[in-house]
Amino acid sequence: MPMNIHWNDKDPIYRQLHDRLVELILEGVFRDGDALPSVRQIAAEQRINPITISKSLQMLVNESLVEKRRGLGMFVCEGGAKKLIAVERKKFLEEEWPMSVAKIQRLGLQVDDLLKEVPQ
Fold first, then answer.
1. Are both 33 and 90 inside the same structural domain?
2. What is the pLDDT, as a whole number, of residue 2?
3. Same domain, residue pair 20 and 67
C-alpha cells in the first residue's frame, strides 16, 4: 500500500514519516491490531534509509501507538487509534485552534462565511 508522502525540506525525514503514519492511523487505513509495512517495504517504496524508518517506528512505540512483535513486525496497539484521536484533538484545541481563531478574527470572518467554504 503506497503511503504517498509529500516530503518537505523543513522537517527531518523521520518526523515526516512518523507524522504520515499517524495520519494513516487517524484515517483508519491502519486499525487497531493491523500490521504496519515492514522497514524493508518502506525503504524500498520511499527510497530512504532503514535506520531513519526505524527511528520513526520507535517514536510510535514510545508513544504506545505501535507495538513490536518479535519476528512478526510492528502492529497498531489495541486502543491506539482512540488514544491518538484524543491526543490530536487536545493538541489541536490547545495549539492550533487559538491561532486559527486569531486569524479568523483578524480577517473579520463570520461563522456563516466559514461554513460556506466547507467542502461537501
1. no
2. 60
3. yes
